[in-house]
Amino acid sequence: MSTLVFSKSNRKDAAMTDVPWKRYLNRVLWYATLLGVSVPFVFPFIWMVSGSLKSQSEITAFPPTIIPETFRWENYVEIFQYQPFAQQYFNSLYIAVVVTISIMFVASLAGYAFAKIKFKGANLVFLLLLSGLMMPEEVTIIPNFFAMSTLNLMNSHVPLILLPVFGSQGIIATFLMRQFFMSIPNEVEEAGIMDGLSRFGVFWRIALPLSGPALAAVAILSFLHSWNLLLEPLVFVSDLDKFTVPLALNNFSDAYGLPLWHLQMAATSLAVIPVLLIYVIAQRHIVQSFAMTGVKG
Questions:
Q1: What is the pLDDT of residue 28?
Q2: Where are the domains of the chain?
Q3: pTM above 0.90, yes or no
Q4: Which of 118, 294, 285, 116 has the alpha carbon at shortest distance from 203?
Q5: Which of 209, 246, 196 is nearest to 225 (CA)?
Q6: What CATH number was assigned to the domain covering residues 82-292?
Q7: Which helix (H) or strand (E) holds 269?
Q8: Residue among 97, 101, 95 nearest 242 (CA)
Q9: Rounded to the nearest 10 degrees, how much is the dihedral formed by the CA atoms of 116, 122, 124, 128?
């Protein structure tokens, strides 16, 4: 009997000592797999930062090198001397902020109306709104060009603000907000109305504070869409000091139209900073919002 108890205790102790090693090994293998999968995604970023510190000749040299032979920090100075990159950077920044705030305001109101206010033809109007997503921006750019030209808004930043707010990006944001507001129980709003709140009061004091994750997702998507916008600035803006960052990146070229890769890499490295900050700050909110948009349909 004592031998049996002793053997069982030995097996138990051996199992307890084996489990931590297995967990450690599984964790190492898991991290190694993730590290290997992330290489194709991280390598372009590393190459961009490395190229921003090289000379033009070293970037085009073969075989290529990851670590620059000579770190040319002056590339980050030359991009501001080549063109008014600081002004162009500010243009993209303030346009993206204005577009983001405007879309959050319009989409939250429209999404709440489609989700909670019952009116005749609501579903038909919503379907017509979603049908706008089937038309690519390349198709609507010519009518928008004539409309902005008629309103004397060419060579200004107004089209770059209005078109995303009332275009496809605004529609996507409205859809996300509608899906989120539909997940809010009607009993919560009925309790607010019984306490004397108006319809707008229910929206402002109850529904909107609960929609933080959805608003964060809308903010991220709207900011990134506006920050990366190229076609509209290319069509509506012609002055160099009114360029946005995507146009400015395309403008780093020599007299023959060949790209100045070392300057483009340096400018692109600076252009990535707001995008990285947005993702680091609010990445968990966008995942939570997308998980909640399908709760109720």
A1: 83
A2: 2-51, 82-292
A3: no
A4: 116
A5: 246
A6: 1.10.3720.10
A7: helix 261-292
A8: 95
A9: -70
